[in-house]
Prior knowledge:
There is one protein chain. Strands 3-2-1-4-5-6-7 form a seven-stranded parallel beta sheet, with helices on both faces. The longest helix is centred in the middle third of the chain and has 22 residues, at about 105-125. The chain is globular, with a radius of gyration of 17 Å. With about 250 residues, the protein is α/β, with parallel strands linked by helices. The chain starts with 9 loop residues before the first strand and ends in a 7-residue tail after the last strand. The protein has one domain (about 10-240): 3-Layer(aba) Sandwich (Rossmann fold), CATH 3.40.50. It has eight helices and seven strands; from the N terminus they run βαβαβαβαβαβαααβ. It is about 45% helix and about 15% strand. The structure holds NADP nicotinamide-adenine-dinucleotide phosphate. It comes from Chryseobacterium lathyri. Pfam families: adh_short_C2. This is Oxidoreductase. Belongs to the short-chain dehydrogenases/reductases (SDR) family.
Amino acid sequence: xxxxxxxDKIILITGASSGIGRSCSxxxxxxxxxxxxxxxxxxxxxxxxxxxAPDSKAETIIADITRAENLEELIAEKVSVxxxxxxxxxxxxxxxxxxxxxxxxxxxxxxxxxxxISGFEIAKNLSLKKYKSEVASFVFISSVAGMVGEIGKSxxxxxxxxxxxxARSMAMELSRSGIRVxxxxxxxxxxxxxxxMFENVGEEAAEEIIKKHPLGIGQPEDVANACIFxxxxxxxxxxxxxxxxxxxxxxx
Length: 252
Ligand SMILES: NC(=O)c1ccc[n+]([C@@H]2O[C@H](COP(=O)([O-])OP(=O)(O)OC[C@H]3O[C@@H](n4cnc5c(N)ncnc54)[C@H](OP(=O)(O)O)[C@@H]3O)[C@@H](O)[C@H]2O)c1
């Protein structure tokens, strides 16, 4: 039996329409999982579905995770089709690089709503006996920005620090329910969020950021592979941890 396999596991993934979430969806399907995929952009989510391993089953939920009051019902519907959930990746996220003087309470609220609170709320629902299989693993995508300081990232960093801390406490509380909870902190990964960020900071600053990665910028699969490990039985003794996947960025 391959301990790293996700065969017979049903995994729910937010942010599945782009970047790291799309890659997590594709790689989890190749590892044998069936999937429930969530995002707002239906066309892009369907594109993700078209990239999945042909024998994997996938259900989609088109929703804004910060607004969907009926998200629990939508998830319940999909669970009744595919079965109980044994894995969750909270990958949906938004990023804003702005000087502190341009930060507003609304900016903090908007970023926290997607990056942290929505993920915690979905995890709360999935921890209920009626939705979760006997054992389960939850993975929150944080960021190195939640661990080390970066200019213009006060709100984003704060939200990602909250993800690491929230996941750790959740791990303590949910261990008795057979649920492991971990976070992953990537540095810069080649996705649309990064392209946008580089446009904001300008070419020179972008070059400086790239230079800070001893192994260069990451690819979405680099993070997806770490997710597969944390979702699989190979990591059955790991909970409450923050796995740094950063090409050496935070080792300076
Ligand atoms: N790329 C990097 O360098 C990097 C580094 C460290 C951490 N991360 C983290 O990794 C995660 C994925 O980033 P990425 O680079 O893959 O970004 P991305 O390509 O921009 O994807 C972001 C995803 O989040 C979804 N999303 C955003 N707001 C949503 C909302 N209100 N409701 C539902 N879905 C929402 C988007 O889907 P829709 O637009 O279709 O809703 C999209 O699928 C984020 O949490 C990010 O902070 C990224």
